[in-house]
Amino acid sequence: MRIGIGLPNQVRDVRPAVIPKWAVRAEQAGFSSLSTVGRIAYPGVTDTVALAGAAGATSTIELVSTVLLATVWPPALLAKEIAGIDGISGGRLTLGVGVGGRADDFVADGHGMTGRGKRFDSDLDTYREIWSGRPYAGGDNPAVPRGTREVPLLFGGSSPAAFERMARRGVGYIAPSVPPEAVAGMFDMARSAWRTAGRAGDPRLVAISYFAVGDADAGRRNVHHYYRNFGNEVADVIAGGLRGSRDSILDAVKAFRDAGADELIFNPGVDDSNEISRLADIVL
What we know:
Elements: E1 2-6, H1 18-29, E2 33-36, H2 47-57, E3 62-65, E4 68-69, H3 75-89, E5 93-98, H4 116-131, E6 153-155, H5 160-169, E7 172-174, H6 180-196, E8 204-211, H7 216-227, H8 232-240, H9 246-258, E9 263-268, H10 274-283
Parallel strand pairs: 1-2, 1-9, 2-3, 3-5, 4-5, 5-6, 6-7, 7-8, 8-9
Helix pairs in contact: 1-2, 2-3, 3-4, 5-6, 6-9, 7-8
């Protein structure tokens, strides 16, 4: 099982200048990937900006969004931005996407929560058309440079539609920030959907877990605040799952490996870049 680390782009009031420095240190430490968690209505740095900063600062580490709220974006704009980030990185981006669940994140006219699942399926077609280099909007010009590739997609979510979409159009599944025993069931559903769709091999299965070694209490407060508009019960579960000690982090590694994860990404609860070496000393 590979071990990745998140960027602190959605830590409340993150210092944006930390992000490229964080990316460099994570790559040097030997983590498998750098990830983002993102939303619009929160005082952080949006996924695309954080990923672009990481792409320019690094040269080998994989970049992953876990997950980007795709339906809050006009699809052509998002597809062009993602193609640019992937190109800058030299083809190191894997785009994790979901439909979103917070009404305040849907700020673009015509891109509200209503009908977002159906709209998402149409958006995915737009992404691929743009990445293929077809002329855009009836004109002569494509939206992306020649040589742009189709960016691989991971899908989040827990509805039957999310698993079916993943099996048809993705390379794998990202589980939400829930305990390993719940993730194991979601991975089973992902594998089942994959087989039903007639896909060869197995889906890539990614788990995420929050951590804060230097100040676990601050990390839990930050994570709770991020999720509190889902209600205190949900926020309590996610914040309570933050790993703050060596033993709890190693327990997470074992538990998510046993659940079948191909990769476990530890997302930070604070933006202290010393967290990178603290985590690396435990898991790498």
